[in-house]
Amino acid sequence: MLKAIALAALISALAASLIACNSEEQQAKIFVSVTANKFDLTDQQKAKLFDIAMAALNLRTEMTKDEKELKQELLTMLGADTLDTARINHVLDDKEQVFRKYSRLLVADFAELHRTLSAEQKRKLIEMLKKRDAKSALSAASDARCYTGA
Questions:
Q1: Which one is predicted more confidently, 8 or 21?
Q2: Residue 41 neighbours by CB under 8 Å, 6+ apart
Q3: CA–CA dist 73, 68 (Å, integer)
Q4: Residue 65 gets which letter from DSSP?
Q5: What is the pLDDT of residues 16-69, one digit of tens each?
Q6: Which residues make Cβ contacts (< 8 Å) with residue 150, sequence separation at least 6?
Q7: pTM over 0.70
Q8: pLDDT per position as a tens digit, 108-149
Q9: Where are the alpha helices (DSSP H) in the chain?
Q10: Do the Cβ atoms of 16 and 30 come closer than 8 Å?
Q11: Cα 20 from Cα 1, distance rounded (Å)
Q12: What are phi and psi of 80, to 5 degrees?
């Protein structure tokens, strides 16, 4: 569970940081540059972080591939008398397989990077994740108020 949370946080941080850029490689380079400045990363750590960023971006690309077509297909199914559960399960199985492939790679790469982090770098990472978590909680509370009218 902790592994999944760390992976989700990593992917979330990457996606939020990179969304406005053009190529995936350019996005990864910008993310590494910004992160390297915050955490005073060595060249070895930067290289590993670049690998992680590229894998996370590849995961995002694979998970969102055919998204428009799949949404349209689901809308069509919702209008039918019965759902094509076999088709839905097939799509979910495909996405799950992609996620498993990349998540294992990301976890292994992140563990390798983690082994190279100094105590100070780890402290900064924990602080950053706590701040991000607090912001997410505030955002979620705000979203809940919007939906409930509170």
A1: 8
A2: 32, 35, 49, 121
A3: 9
A4: T
A5: 555 555 688 898 889 899 898 888 999 999 999 999 999 999 888 888 888 888
A6: 144
A7: no
A8: 999 999 999 999 999 998 898 888 877 776 665 555 555 455
A9: 2-18, 24-39, 43-64, 67-79, 85-116, 119-148
A10: no
A11: 30
A12: -85, 170
Read off the amino acid at residue 73: E
Residue where the block lists tokens 């799950």: 96
Residue 125 inside a domain? The answer is yes
Q: Is 6 a member of any domain?
A: no
Give the torsion through C-alpha atoms of 118, 123, 129, 131, to 10 deg: -150
Residue 80 in 3-state DSSP?
coil
Number of structural domains the chain divides into: 1
pLDDT at 134: 76
Burial-class residue 150 by CB neighbours within 10 Å (0-12, 13-18, 19+).
exposed
Residue with tokens 């706590």: 130
By residue range, what is the domain housing residue 73? 25-35+42-130
What are the structure tokens assigned to 83, written together? 């759902």
* 98 closest CA partner among 46, 138, 63, 140: 63
Nearest of 32, 8, 2 to residue 102 by alpha carbon:
8
93 in a structural domain: yes
